[in-house]
Automatic annotation (TrEMBL):
This is Endoplasmic reticulum to nucleus signaling 2. It comes from Goodea atripinnis. Signal peptide: none annotated. It comes from the Eukaryota.
Length: 233
């Protein structure tokens, strides 16, 4: 764990740490021009190339910045680490906005459950195949961040299927109260903040996540105060 974010490292590169690590960085910007009705990319704009844009309206402009950092160990003469991080430009979420939905995502796989904040009714579910790290709203001609809550894979399924009000009701297993999650109303299902470490393909990833009591946790030997879930994808 470094005391800097990847964008901060790229901004300060090239730099050298006190333990002999050399850092190099690169930043690459791009705009995607998307048809908001079909989701199809019309064109992309970069510093080196730009294609003509058809005068279709409206269009959605999505800015992406790719940060690349490498770390070279001068003591062992080895490339120790390289990382690529993508950040998408979006307006911050406005707390004054009356947003009706709550997005609950699984940190262990790609499951997302979207519920109505007032009734708790599930509006839709989708599994995207990989963990969801951001949710965005289509706002005018750009994106705006939408709030989402990350839960352990076991916890999201536990809440979804254990909080049904009426088992006889159709689709009742997908009906539960949003307040049940946000207020941690039940002592038996109190949610605990953790750092979730998982594996996707050949890459490791980490995200803050909530778990309920009973989910298996493993304590890191280096940092005994930080519990990590041992259930990766």
């Amino acid at each position: 764990k470094l005391p800097f974010t990847i964008p901060e490292l790229v901004q300060s590169a090239p730099c050298r740490s006190s333990d002999g690590m050399l850092y190099t960085g690169k930043k690459h910007d791009m705009w995607f021009v998307v048809d908001p009705e079909t989701g199809e990319k019309q064109t992309s704009l970069t510093t080196s190339s730009s294609e003509s844009i058809c005068p279709n309206t409206p269009l959605l402009y999505i800015g992406r910045t790719e940060y690349m950092v490498t770390m070279f160990d001068t003591k062992t003469q080895e490339l120790r680490w390289n990382a690529t991080y993508n950040d998408y430009s979006a307006h911050p979420y406005d707390e004054k906005q009356d947003y009706k939905m709550a997005h609950l995502v699984s940190s262990g796989d790609g499951l997302m459950v979207t519920v109505d904040r007032e009734s708790g009714d599930v509006l839709w579910t989708q599994n995207y195949g990989s963990p969801v790290v951001g949710v965005y709203l289509y706002y005018e001609d750009s994106l705006r961040h939408a709030p989402h809550l990350s839960l352990a894979m076991e916890t999201l399924r536990f809440l979804t299927f254990s909080s049904a009000k009426d088992q006889a009701e159709a689709h009742s297993t997908l009906k539960w109260s949003y307040q049940f999650v946000t207020e941690q109303a039940s002592a038996q299902t109190q949610l605990i903040p953790t750092l979730y470490v998982g594996k996707l393909d050949s890459h490791l990833y980490a995200s803050t996540s909530l778990v309920h009591r009973g989910v298996s946790l493993v304590v890191s030997a280096a940092h005994n105060t930080t519990p990590c879930s041992n259930k990766g994808h």
